[in-house]
Amino acid sequence: MAGNGISTLQYKRDRQNAKLALASSNRSNPGRRSTLDASQLPTLYTAGDNTSLDNNPNPGGLIQGRCWT
Questions:
Q1: pTM of this prediction?
Q2: What is the structure's pLDDT at 1?
Q3: Dist. CA 44–CA 4, nearest whole Å
Q4: Residue boundaries of the structural domains of the chain
Q5: d(C-alpha 17, C-alpha 13), whole Å
Q6: CB of 33 closer than 8 Å to CB of 69
Q7: What DSSP string describes 23-44?
Q8: Which residues contact 34 (CB under 8 A, 6 or more apart)?
């Protein structure tokens, strides 16, 4: 079990969001892209479901350095 408690969350979407929030706080140094835009991720787990994925269309294609702006 990790000290941050992420691995104990029930749903994969909750774990995904917690990991992104932790990464965002770790990227808070000046000059680094630290603003999260989850719409740039290719997929997200469906909230409250550990087996389904929500696909983001990303009509312009995937962006270098996605999901950080």
A1: 0.77
A2: 57
A3: 21
A4: 6-55
A5: 6
A6: yes
A7: HHHHT-STTS---B-GGGSSEE
A8: 24, 27, 28, 68
